[in-house]
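Students often ask why inverse folding is considered easier than folding. One informal answer: many sequences map to the same fold, so there is more than one right answer. In these notes we will look at a single instance of the problem. The structure comes first.
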């Protein structure tokens, strides 16, 4: 008796579909659920602990070096704002570490298949993606605030003229808020890359290229082309140049490109985060999970 032969090699795989008209979990419930996932993810804790610890170590090292320089140069008059800015150097490492967390926060669900369970609980994909982004932003906001506070305390206790109470100074507080904002936007940039690429390695590599490699390449091109206008334009909108101009305009002035106003740099950083988020959301809503 002949049995029907199934050609499994050419069989069309079943796609995962969820009725987006179903109510599912509320937005508040989705945010709580996504935040709980971050709490349960060991990578979240490791990256956050490393971020805070490394930031504290760097702040202490900067303060000790600053104090030593002051002792060796008694006629040098330091400024509290300058010391406070240097004490936050660890925030640059926080950007790449928490940016990587932003990538992992979404790509781990694809690698484990948990995204299907998430979509079953929250069928409306835009709502699910918004909940994930909000939970990540909340986590990043807390970790970055702790980093900034610890860095300020260590720097102010070790070196002068910065004092612990200077955290209430309008100029210094404004710089801290700008630093906090850049780390938060970088985490969302990483999240957008993760949604768009659906690959942890790919998202983290692209994030590293945006933050480090691109600046080096453009600086080389600027020298090779004798300061061509198009390279200068790219340098002005390059991610880390925008960060420097947004946090510390004096640091931004060191770039070969003309400096930007902080509000202009802030808009540029928003665009850097918004583009991959928008493209990722478009792919997330239109392509199968």
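Output (designed amino acids):
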């Amino acid at each position: 008796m002949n049995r029907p032969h199934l050609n499994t090699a050419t069989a069309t795989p079943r796609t995962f579909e969820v009725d987006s008209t179903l109510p599912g979990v509320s937005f508040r419930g989705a945010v709580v659920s996504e935040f709980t996932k971050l709490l349960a993810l060991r990578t979240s804790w490791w990256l956050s602990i490393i971020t805070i610890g490394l930031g504290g170590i760097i702040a202490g090292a900067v303060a000790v070096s600053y104090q030593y320089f002051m002792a060796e140069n008694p006629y040098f008059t330091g400024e509290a704002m300058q010391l406070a800015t240097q004490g936050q150097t660890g925030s640059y490492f926080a950007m790449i570490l928490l940016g990587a967390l932003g990538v992992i926060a979404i790509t781990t669900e694809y690698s484990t298949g948990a995204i299907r369970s998430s979509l079953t609980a929250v069928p409306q994909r835009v709502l699910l993606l918004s909940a994930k982004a909000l939970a990540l932003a909340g986590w990043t906001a807390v970790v970055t605030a702790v980093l900034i506070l610890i860095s300020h305390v260590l720097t102010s206790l070790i070196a002068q003229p910065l004092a612990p109470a200077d955290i209430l100074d309008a100029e210094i507080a404004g710089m801290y808020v700008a630093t906090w904002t850049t780390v938060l936007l970088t985490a969302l940039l990483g999240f957008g890359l993760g949604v768009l690429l659906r690959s942890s390695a790919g998202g983290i590599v692209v994030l590293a290229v945006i933050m480090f490699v691109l600046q080096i390449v453009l600086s080389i091109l600027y020298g090779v082309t004798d300061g061509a206008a198009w390279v200068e334009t790219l340098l002005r909108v390059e991610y880390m140049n925008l960060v420097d101009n947004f946090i510390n305009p004096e640091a931004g002035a060191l770039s070969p490109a003309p400096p930007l106003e902080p509000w202009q740099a802030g808009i540029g950083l928003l665009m850097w985060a918004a583009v991959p988020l928008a493209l990722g959301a478009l792919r997330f809503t239109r392509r199968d999970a």
